[in-house]
Amino acid sequence: MSFKDLPLDARPREKLIARGAAALADAELLALLLRTGVAGKNVLQLAQQLLERFGGLSGLLHTGVDDLKSVKGLGGSAKRSELIAVLELARRAMGEKLRERAVFDSPDAVKQYLQLHIGPRPYEVFAVVFLDVQHRMLALEEMFRGTLTQTSVYPREVVTRAIHHHAAAVVLAHNHPSGSIEPSRADESLTQTLRAALALVDVRVLDHIIVSPGQSFSMAEKGLL
């Protein structure tokens, strides 16, 4: 069922034109992207199902391609591609924001940015946000994959990339696919090892953030740095 089959007062396109995008509910905005529903389910119901399945807009932003494939009505590549493109635009917009202003002017934006990029991964990823002297983002690099220990994350490579970017500071980050965001002793030990190595080239470690979809833990905020 498409928009034209909905009652006039339930059509999000007309509502947007008449009252503006802010007047639309999350499901209505998502329905505009989906355009059509599936057999037995109109487009608004399909949009609401997506939000409920993935935990709202925030959860949807953390959703991977394979998760979307499993949703009835998104099996076709065209509709799924459009939705993935919009989600990627949201991620990139957030990245641009961090490049324009000091990351700790908006610490929540840093956490959300990291959640979007590495939170949904089914395996552990260690990433580094490289910052300039004004703490604006220069680059985000995913440097290591797999179980993270001091033997699998090489300080020399982190130092080399920091020098390459002429970074003045970094934010370390990794994900916990299990969903728990509490740091382990290995996480804390690794942080101190990297902090000491980067200090040798005058690069500060400002934080180490652990993420999972919809959650984050800042070691700096908890006094662990």
UniProtKB/TrEMBL annotation:
**Its GO biological process terms?**
proteolysis
Keyword list (alphabetical) reads: Hydrolase, Metal-binding, Metalloprotease, Protease, Zinc
CDD domains tied to this protein: MPN_DUF2466 (cd08071)
Q: Where is the signal peptide?
A: none
What's the superkingdom here?
Answer: Bacteria
The answer to whether UniProt assigns keyword Protease to this entry is yes
List the InterPro entries.
MPN, RadC_JAB, RuvA_2-like, UPF0758, UPF0758_CS, UPF0758_N
Q: Which PROSITE patterns match?
A: MPN, UPF0758
KW Hydrolase (keyword) present = yes
| Recorded GO MF terms | metal ion binding; metallopeptidase activity
Question: Ranges for the MPN domain?
Answer: 103-225
Q: Which Gene3D superfamilies does the annotation name?
A: Cytidine Deaminase, domain 2
Q: Give the family per the record.
A: Belongs to the UPF0758 family.
State the protein's name: DNA repair protein RadC
